Amino acid sequence: MTGLQVLYSGGVIRGLTNWGPFRLPRPITKHQTKYHQGHHFIMRFDSSSAVQQSVRRTLGLDPRMIRFSVVKLGDKLADIKDVSGKVEWNETRELIGDNLGVQVPLSSTRGI
């Protein structure tokens, strides 16, 4: 649905990546249900700010959506042309490393 909003409004979808299910860093309660795991997706798209607000509104109203985020990657195509949306994982589903050499575990069970 959100992809169609972007396309019908003249935006461009640059990529859709399915990261699969992950244990959440902490339990999240939404719609009177506590979630310990979530399915993660990344949709890279270019659109106007009005379309971005519409996407946020649609995702916020979707009962299947536990949490979402919209991140601005850059102002110009040159800033974002090499961002792939793919992540390299090791066997424990931790990030192998980012550009700063910092390892960030996504399989944290803190608070559970």
Automatic annotation (TrEMBL):
<keyword id="KW-0687">Ribonucleoprotein</keyword>
<dbReference type="InterPro" id="IPR014717">
    <property type="entry name" value="Transl_elong_EF1B/ribsomal_bS6"/>
</dbReference>
<dbReference type="InterPro" id="IPR000529">
    <property type="entry name" value="Ribosomal_bS6"/>
</dbReference>
<dbReference type="GO" id="GO:0003735">
    <property type="term" value="F:structural constituent of ribosome"/>
</dbReference>
<comment type="similarity">
    <text>Belongs to the bacterial ribosomal protein bS6 family.</text>
</comment>
<keyword id="KW-0689">Ribosomal protein</keyword>
<dbReference type="GO" id="GO:0070181">
    <property type="term" value="F:small ribosomal subunit rRNA binding"/>
</dbReference>
<dbReference type="GO" id="GO:0006412">
    <property type="term" value="P:translation"/>
</dbReference>
<dbReference type="InterPro" id="IPR035980">
    <property type="entry name" value="Ribosomal_bS6_sf"/>
</dbReference>
<protein>
    <submittedName>
        <fullName>Ribosomal protein S6</fullName>
    </submittedName>
</protein>
<dbReference type="GO" id="GO:0005763">
    <property type="term" value="C:mitochondrial small ribosomal subunit"/>
</dbReference>
<dbReference type="Pfam" id="PF01250">
    <property type="entry name" value="Ribosomal_S6"/>
</dbReference>
